[in-house]
Amino acid sequence: MKFTFNRKAAFLSALTLIWMTVIFLFSAQNGSESSGTSARIVMFFCGIFGYEPSPGAFRTLTFIVRKSAHTTEFGLLSLLWLGTLRSGTDGFRWIYPAAFAASSVFAATDEMHQLFVSDRAGQVTDWMIDSLGALLFLAAAWIISRSAAQKSGAKRLHKS
User: Fold this and answer.
1) Where residue 1 falls among pLDDT bands split at 50, 70, 90?
2) Structure pTM?
């Protein structure tokens, strides 16, 4: 495998580093800041739908928002890694596992980072949710990629 650092790879690498910085900054929020962010998101959507949650429903919705954020943050990171690897390599068969590994390792370091943030806790379950998000997004990308390749192959056959 040879990695060629071209403009596209450089751009996607920069986006990947920026997104990793965003994740790091969210993880650097203390417990009350992080909870406040989740609460504002829940209240925003409740306001849109005219829903007044009970305290128990509010806690459940906040939990769902927090875990969905984990899944999405690391799902997007895995796609950025995938794009970076794909743009810099020619026919590298292991870009999906490599993108997953890079995202999962960063998720582990992110959880370790939270051990040093006030009122936060690095949790193995959050690392697993982060890694699951990476896996789900990569699986979707693989399915879409395969489907597009099959469709373009079928179009070439019909044109011949």
Assistant:
1) low
2) 0.85
